[in-house]
Structure formats: structure tokens, C-alpha cells
Hints:
A: Immunoglobulin-like, four-stranded antiparallel sheet, 6 helices, B: Rna Polymerase Sigma Factor, Chain: A, Arc Repressor Mutant, subunit A
Amino acid sequence: MSGWTEEREDDTAVAAEYVLGLLEPAELAAFESRLEIDPDFRALVALWTEDLAALALAIPETVPPARIEAALMRRLFPEQAQPFWRRLGILPAILGGLAAALIVLWTTNAGLIGPQPEGPAYAATVAAEDGSLVVAARFDPASGLLEVDRTAGAAPRGRVLELWLIADGAQPVSLGVLPDGAEARIEVPEGQRGAFVNAVLAITDEPPGGAPGGIPSGTILASGAVTTL
Amino acid sequence: MIARMAMGDRQALTSLYGATSAKLFGIALRVLEDRAEAEDALQEIFVKVWQNSGRYRVNGLSPMTWLITVARNHSIDRLRARRGHRAAAIDEVAELADLRPGPEETAIAGSMRSRVDACLDALDPDRADAVRRAYLGGEAYADLAARYGVPLNTIRTWLRRSLLRLRECLGS
Lengths: 229, 172
């Protein structure tokens, strides 16, 4: 190899062996640690990778069956295949938050909720986009009680309304089935009381008795972001 | 917001899949010679592409080369794992299809391809064949030594010399 130093030759050959997968494990380890620190060496590897890829480029195309793409998408984007709560847009959440703030003003002014407790409290307006179902919710971590007031809408015939707490990035946790009456107090389980910060409340319709297995199964009817008071 | 970003990414992946899956599936089929396994491999290849797409920019390869390399390397890994698990498969390996390009492949000419093929053709046919077997057949030095009936050290010297000649021809 005229004009090539022996070292350069050796590097060229070993880079090709690396790309071809011919190095033994011990050689491979030494090679890879050098690869990390030597840009010239990396350039040699890139050169071989480009040139040899042409051998694969020449292989005729074969269209894979459509189910492969479907399986791939299910695997990489599982959230779009199932749970609704990941599809909740940010806009309804912001609108819900604004509405919650207004409702809180209204409820406190009207004295519906009574004196403000010490420490933070949380509120949300869980509302359908078209206003067909509106539930005002207010949570007091001190007492662990969530007060709900359904100001519009009702459960579809033969179904019940179930309230869900969805902490940031978490699975929904059921806060229970809403009673027939408009107002109710729900005792929030101890473990969920810290989960209201930046959470979303949502309501689904479920079979009588509530969602089977504690996993939402019905349509999402209303949602709203929780705001800290 | 996150959901929207995910939607955008999903569209990007859908376009990439549409544009390249037939090429990459062809490579997996050629290396693995088993349709069901090539189908599994194709899914894994795109998962790898997806997971490593952030690293692509820094490796300096052209996009297609990078995709081809991910597909080829994954297929070879599977092929080698399969051989390792079946001790009696040596004969089967020996029956591997000839890796020299067929008439159909020869008809598909790319400028890159003709350059590397022209340079391989300038080598002794056995040596060009050994390079192709290593690249697309995943054959190691031990396999090649057995195939050509020469000692391991000899095959290594011989192949390294061929690779250097190939590099001279391809230019740097």
C-alpha cells in the first residue's frame, strides 16, 4: 500500500473488521474504547460503514405485511391505543382551571362551603366541553374530604357517574361513584390526599356499581384541572 | 402538549416507516432467510431506530446508511444467536444461499453500489465472496476458515489484505 504507514493500514483493516463484526470480544473492547477518544478512527469506521452499506442497499425491497406497522405503533404509542386520560388536551384543563377559580369565588362568597381551612386547598370544575355536565369539586387535605356539587347534567340512563383523580403522568384512581343527589362529600383515601397538585379530575359513565376492576371503562364525560387555592 | 408532541413524532415515524420499511425488510429477509423472524426483526429494528434517533445526528452517517446499518447489525445478531443455539446447524450454515448479487440485484444499480461492487469484483472472487459473507451472512473468521479450508490466521491475513485493497480502490 504505497504511501500508507503501517499503522494507518492496521487502523484501516481493523476498522473494516469492526464494521463487518469480525473482531473477537477482547479486541472489540479495546477497539471501542479507542473509538471513543480517536476522531480519525471514528472517521475510518464511518467510511467503511457507508461503503459496505452499499452491499445491503442493493438487496431488493420487500413490502412487509401491514400488521407489522400496526404492531410497531401499538408498541411505541400504547397511550393512543387505549386510555382516554392521556388524550385529555391541555386546553380543556386550562379552561377548567379558570372556571374552577371562578366557582371557588362564587362558592366562598355564597358561603356554600364555609370558612376557609388552614393550609392549601384544591378545587376543580369538572365540566363537559359543551357544558352538559358540570361538577364543582373542592378538596380540603386537612379533613380529607372532597366536596362535590353537580350543577348541570346527570348520569345517562342505566349508568352511574364515576369520579377519577389523575395525578400527573399516573393512572387514574377512582374517587368513587357520584350519588344521585347533586351534592356529596367524598372521603379521599389517605394515600391519594397528596396527589391533587397539578392533577386532573375526570368523570366517566360506568355500569351500576362503578367501573369493573377500578379501571375506567366508559366514555369520558367531563374533565378539569385541579388548581391550588 | 405531550400528547401533541407524541402525535407529531408518530407522524414522523409513520413517514419514515413508509419510505424505508420495504428496504429494511428486504435486508432482514436476506440475512435471516426466514420470513417470520424477519418480521420480528423489522419491528425491533424500528424500535431501535426510534429509541436511538437522538444519537443519529452525532454519528456522521447518511440517514439511509444509518438505517441500513441498524437493520443489518440487528439481523446479523439474530442470525448469530440462532446459530449459537443450534449446535447442529453447521451444515445449514454451509447451505446458505450464495451471497453474490443475482441478476435481479445487478439490475438495480446505484452509484454507491456499483462502486463497491466494482471494487469487490477487482478482488479474487473467493475474497470478494468472503467480504460479502461477513457483511450479509454474519460469518466470523472461524466460519470462513472452515468454508475455505484454511487455518484461522491465514484467513485473517488474507481477508485483511483484501480489505486494504478494497479501501485503496474505494478511496478515502
